[in-house]
Amino acid sequence: MLPFLDLNDYPYKAGFERGRFCGAFRPDLTCCLPCPLEYWSYSDEFSQNVDSAHWVNLPAMICQIFLLLTFIVLPPEKSHRHYLSVGLCLALILLEVSSEDVWLADMGKG
Question: Are residues 30 and 61 both part of a single domain?
């Protein structure tokens, strides 16, 4: 059995209406997937894959911090630092920290 629900049974009351995943099968019948949509649009291993990505992200962040420390400690002739590589390293660290922060907040809930 398909997980589609009749749109007329669930009228719009609040929330992000355009976020619904609906389709017209006939002119008189429009059906929608129930929320949360990721349960129906992604594989069953989706949350496990997200957790795996966070565990891969952790050593990547440690390596980025180590690289930034070498830029600080070593002379420019040895580290080949440049403002573009330092900026990219800082941007990646910020991206990794934000990803880990969301992951740690989710771990605290469950």
Answer: no
Q: How far apart are CA 88 and CA 102, in angstroms?
A: 21
- CA 79 – CA 5 distance, rounded (Å): 59
For residue 14, what are its two tokens? Answer: 């609040």
- Looking up tokens 């009228």, which residue turns up? 11
pTM of the model: 0.56
Both tokens assigned to 33: 């997937």
Residues 9 and 31 in one domain: yes
Q: Using one digit for the tens of pLDDT, what is the confidence trace for 4-33?
A: 666 666 666 766 666 666 777 777 777 776
Residues 53 and 11 in one domain: no
Q: What pLDDT, on a 0 to 100 scale, did the predictor assign at position 11?
A: 67
49 and 32 fall within a common domain: no
Structural domain span for residue 32: 5-40
Give the containing element (helix H, strand E) for 5: strand 5-6
| Dist CA 66 CA 80 (whole Å) | 15
Number of Cβ within 10 Å of residue 96's Cβ equals 19
